[in-house]
Automatic annotation (TrEMBL), chain A:
Entries under SUPFAM superfamilies matching the protein: RmlC-like cupins
InterPro entries per record: Anti-sigma_ChrR, Anti_sigma_zinc_sf, ChrR-like_cupin_dom, RmlC-like_jellyroll, RmlC_Cupin_sf
Residue span, ChrR-like cupin domain: 99-190
Name of the protein: ChrR family anti-sigma-E factor
Stored CDD domains: cupin_ChrR (cd20301)
Origin organism lineage: Bacteria, Pseudomonadati, Pseudomonadota, Gammaproteobacteria, Alteromonadales
UniProtKB/TrEMBL annotation, chain B:
Stated family: Belongs to the sigma-70 factor family. ECF subfamily.
Domain RNA polymerase sigma-70 region: from-to ranges: 30-97
Protein name stated in the entry: Sigma-70 family RNA polymerase sigma factor
Ranges where the RNA polymerase sigma factor 70 region 4 type domain occurs: 134-184
Length: 210, 204
């Protein structure tokens, strides 16, 4: 089970259906595998139920019920298919079934990326693959960067993060993440601005600068 | 204190009738009971009149198609209706944009089908009713300043920092008010009967 979770604000906006595409998918990927956050989500959905209970009884067009009845069909929705494989369901339609087939774009030997086309005006979404044992140049962030570890693990000066962990970095965080040695670390990241490297080395090779 | 925990049990019965008998009369009753409030919610969350009507219709069609997936041991009828409305809203909002995300990908159906709950269905049903009842109590007793923040999250999708700008409150104050509200609900997550009783009693 994950040790790091989205904060209550994000979980509540998620439950209310109010997150933008990229953040919504990111939080969904965490919640899908986190019983702790599923429980919280359930409570926040109960808030929603109560807000409906106390909503005004707005006037509907007189013929809306009949129009709706006319559209009832016999077929019932099939029960949802259970999630299989190691790609979280919210990402499945954007990735090949076999994760090893992801067409990574090289940024450097240490890190590769795959951009996710969510049609989100507010955020960029992408997968990162940090090669096993590799360390990234020291960097900070121009804005917020939400990261979900999908597989493998990495560490920085603040802690160690494993599959399922949800990490938020912002302009106050300066770090040098290193993937653990056993396997490549694949992360799903949502950013509201490109990364900005701070070291002299970063200034030369900064693959994030655009 | 009240010992009767039932919360609008009639809605649950209507959903079960729709699921098991494909009962159109029950569907009409449900539509008349909740349609107006679903629209009220949709309007508060920013839909215009026409979109709100469409959202109500689409949500009710989803009720008809998914009623057999409703599990009264997991959620009250209103909470379940909320999730359908939320999902439809997400899908309708995105319909005009070039993107492929659907609410079904974001929000998991609970895995438990009703049949898996044969063990002690009544007990669990009572607990889900009790939970909803306590959520209602807590919401009704929230101080206005905390309620406003909840409303801004649910109806306007505002983040803490946006709320702090809008209400001209320090960010820390917004966070601590929401935290105060949430800390009361956190207890629910533990699903511990004794705790639930204590909250129940302190609210009367």
């Amino acid at each position: 089970m994950a040790s790091y979770h989205p904060n209550d604000e994000l979980l509540m906006r998620f439950s209310a259906g109010m997150l933008s595409n990229a953040l919504g998918v990111l939080v969904a990927c965490h919640v899908e595998r986190c019983p702790h956050c599923q429980e919280k989500t359930r409570i926040y959905e109960q808030f929603g139920g109560e807000l409906i209970a106390e909503s005004d009884d707005a006037e509907l067009p007189a013929d809306l019920l009949d129009k709706t009845l006319a559209r009832l069909s016999d077929e019932a929705e099939p029960a949802p298919v259970k999630v299989s494989g190691n790609v979280p369901r919210p990402l499945q339609r954007f990735l090949p079934d076999d994760v090893s087939q992801i067409p990574w774009k090289g940024m450097s030997k240490a890190i590769k990326e795959f951009r996710l086309p969510f049609g989100d005006d507010e955020f960029d979404a992408r997968l990162y693959k940090i090669a096993a044992g590799k360390q990234l140049p020291e960097h900070t962030h121009r804005g917020r960067e939400f990261t979900l570890v999908l597989s493998g693990s990495f560490s920085d000066n603040a802690g160690a993060y494993h599959a399922g962990d949800f990490v938020l970095a912002d302009t106050s965080v300066m770090h040098r993440p290193r993937a653990h040695a056993e396997q490549d670390c694949i992360c799903f990241a949502v950013l509201d601005a490109p990364l900005k490297f701070t070291g002299w080395f970063g200034a030369l090779v900064n693959p994030f600068m655009r | 204190m009240s010992t009767h925990f039932a919360v609008e049990p009639a809605l649950e019965m209507l959903l079960i009738a729709i699921a098991q008998q494909r009962d159109q009369a029950a569907f009409r009753q449900l539509f008349n009971a909740v349609g107006g409030r679903l629209k009220g919610y949709a309007v508060k969350s920013g839909a215009n009149d026409k979109d709100a009507d469409e959202l109500v219709q689409e949500t009710m069609l989803l009720v008809w198609r998914k009623a057999h997936l409703y599990d009264p041991t997991q959620a009250s009828a209103l909470t379940w209706l909320f999730t359908l409305l939320r999902n439809k809203r997400v899908d309708l909002l995105r319909r005009n944009k070039h993107n492929l995300i659907s609410a079904d990908d974001l929000y998991l159906e609970p895995e438990s089908a009703q049949s898996e709950h044969d063990a002690e269905p009544l007990q669990q049903e009572i607990e889900s009713d009790r939970n909803q009842h306590i959520v209602r109590n807590l919401l009704q007793h929230l101080p206005t300043e905390q309620r406003i923040i909840l409303y801004k999250v649910y109806f306007e999708g505002k983040s803490h920092s946006e709320i702090s700008d809008e209400l001209a409150l320090p960010l820390g104050t917004v966070k601590s008010r929401l935290r105060l509200a949430l800390s009361k609900f956190e207890v629910l997550a533990r699903q511990h009967f004794l705790w639930l009783l204590i909250i129940q009693m302190t609210n009367y």
